Amino acid sequence: MLPHLEVIHGTIEGIDPGVSNAPTIQLAPREGGTLTVTATAEQVAQAAHLREASAMVVMGPTPRLIWIRQQGADVPVPSAEARDAHALRKWSELLRRLAQ
């Protein structure tokens, strides 16, 4: 299976802070089943305060959490100008080299 992104909506079923290994979170998607994803310590702490959650996961051999938030929470969307400015700051050197 090739890695791909998926947004999962469901409940937090378990948290392992990863004392002896990588931290993990167990999600129960609405569709059924359980999905265990690796996460950062900060993401595990954030998940500990949630029951219903939405999460973006890189699905692959070892699913990895990208973000997690309260299900239904409003997501701030930066303006087009802010997104453009961020892209130019991040990629300006590469764009400059490609333009030569």
In short:
With 100 residues, the chain is of the alpha+beta class. 27% of the residues lie in helices and 38% in strands.
List the main descriptive attributes of the protein structure presented here.
100 residues, alpha+beta, five-stranded antiparallel β-sheet, 2 helices, 27% helix
Low-confidence stretches: none
What is the molecular shape? elongated
What is the rounded distance between the termini?
A: 39 Å
Structural class by helix and strand composition: alpha+beta
Largest sheet: 5 strands, antiparallel
Strand order of the largest sheet: 3-2-1-4-5
The average pLDDT score comes to 91
Task: Please report the number of helical segments.
Answer: 2
| DSSP helix fraction | 25-40%
How much β-strand is present in the residues? 35-45%
Number of strands: 5
Radius of gyration: 17 Å
Order of helices and strands, N to C? EEEHEEH
